[in-house]
Specification:
The structure is a single chain. This protein folds into three domains: 88 residues, Uridine Diphospho-n-acetylenolpyruvylglucosamine Reductase, domain 2, CATH 3.30.43; 133 residues, Uridine Diphospho-n-acetylenolpyruvylglucosamine Reductase, domain 3 (2-Layer Sandwich), CATH 3.30.465; 60 residues, Uridine Diphospho-n-acetylenolpyruvylglucosamine Reductase, domain 1 (Alpha-Beta Complex), CATH 3.90.78.10. The strands form five sheets. Strands 6, 7, 8, 11, 12 and 13 form a six-stranded antiparallel sheet that branches. A four-stranded mixed sheet has the order 1-2-5-3. It has seven helices and 17 strands. The two termini are 32 Å apart. Helix 1 packs antiparallel against helix 2 and helix 3 packs antiparallel against helix 5. It is α+β, with helices and mostly antiparallel strands.
């Protein structure tokens, strides 16, 4: 039996720090707000403090409130790659609002590349469709990724033969843990498979992508095919997409299925019968059940094949602990997801 993580009691000194943060935030902060509805898993407990931010001044206010205080921070955009423990997140959750959802589509459609700037909170499928309608190509793949641009930049999201590294040329970020903020070239991201150099406290504000001129009709057809493929091969319901990153030269879904775990249920969570690298949560289910199933799947794949699957889903509020053959929990409290 896998123990239920995330139920540890936080020391009273943390409550003092949280009260100080609340006082510094004023009306911007709200106590004990549910986070499940802000994620695609739709399960999990509350944040000790939730702040809705609409502009860079709001982010700087959060940074000022956190300065000098040992309080973890979690940034949420679409919440499509995030699992919050049932015990909640005993820190400050920062939710990016509509103020970060703008898009700038230049009118000049020459034969060269066109730079599109979009806010971190814009949903990738929305951005993909708007780019196609504007006569641009190269971002159609994102129509199949239900996340936000900021999180996609940070994790180098990808699918259908492409990823963010193929188009991002520049971005802006504000670090909530330091005084650092600025506009940066994409080289600073040091992109690798599903990873970048962006710090856990660094918030992407906007990103620019270089896209080529394209035929809107062709782009629409490409997106329609991506959506059709997704519906045929991936489950709906409450999930966060792929649970594990693919190990070199193999597929996480193939390994989970080969281990005989497809359809496995643990409490209110189960491995999808349509795609073994998806874990689905029941309505009103338990985030700790989801994590317990993730943990069990990792251990079984490691036991049977000697391969340590690394979670692609970010975890908040869970205690870092040893999980046997699969290793230690990879995402400590304070991980940022958008």
């Amino acid at each position: 039996m896998v123990s239920r993580p995330g139920a540890e009691q936080w020391p009273a000194t943390d409550e003092v720090a949280l009260a100080e943060v609340m006082a510094a935030l004023g009306r911007r902060g709200r106590r004990d707000q549910p986070l499940g509805p802000l994620t695609t898993y739709r399960v999990g407990g509350p944040a000790a403090v939730l702040v809705e931010v609409e502009d860079e001044d709001d982010l700087r206010a959060v940074r000022g409130a956190l300065a000098g205080r040992a309080v973890p921070v979690l940034v949420i955009g679409r919440g499509s790659n995030l699992l919050v423990a049932d015990a909640g997140f005993r820190g400050v959750a920062v939710h990016l609002g509509r103020g970060f959802s703008g898009i700038d589509l230049p009118e000049d459609r020459g034969s060269g590349m066109t730079v599109v700037r979009a806010g971190a909170a814009i949903q990738l499928p929305v951005l993909a469709r708007q780019c196609v309608e504007a006569g641009l190509t190269g971002f159609e793949w994102a129509a199949g990724v239900p996340g936000s641009l900021g999180g996609a930049v940070r994790m180098n999201a990808g699918g259908h033969g492409s990823d963010m590294a193929a188009s991002v040329v520049r971005y802006r970020s504000i670090d909530l843990g330091t005084e650092t903020e600025g506009d940066y070239d994409a080289d600073r991201l040091a992109y690798a498979y599903r990873s970048s150099s962006i710090r856990s406290t660094e918030v992407v504000v906007w990103a620019e992508m270089a896209l080529a001129a394209g035929d809107p009709e062709v782009g629409r057809a490409t997106i329609s095919e991506i959506v059709r493929w997704r519906r045929q091969h991936q489950p709906g319901g409450s999930n966060a997409g792929s649970v594990f990153t693919n190990p070199p030269g193999d597929s996480a879904g193939r390994l989970v299925e080969a281990a005989g775990l497809k359809g496995l249920r643990r409490g209110t969570a189960r491995v999808s019968e349509k795609h073994a690298n998806f874990i689905q949560a029941d309505p009103g289910g338990s985030a700790d059940d989801v994590w317990g199933l993730m943990d069990y799947v990792r251990q079984e794949v490691a036991r049977q094949f000697g391969i340590d699957l690394r979670p692609e889903v970010h975890l908040a509020g869970f205690a870092t602990r040893h999980t046997g053959a699969a290793g230690d929990t990879p995402a400590p409290v304070g991980e940022i997801d958008r």
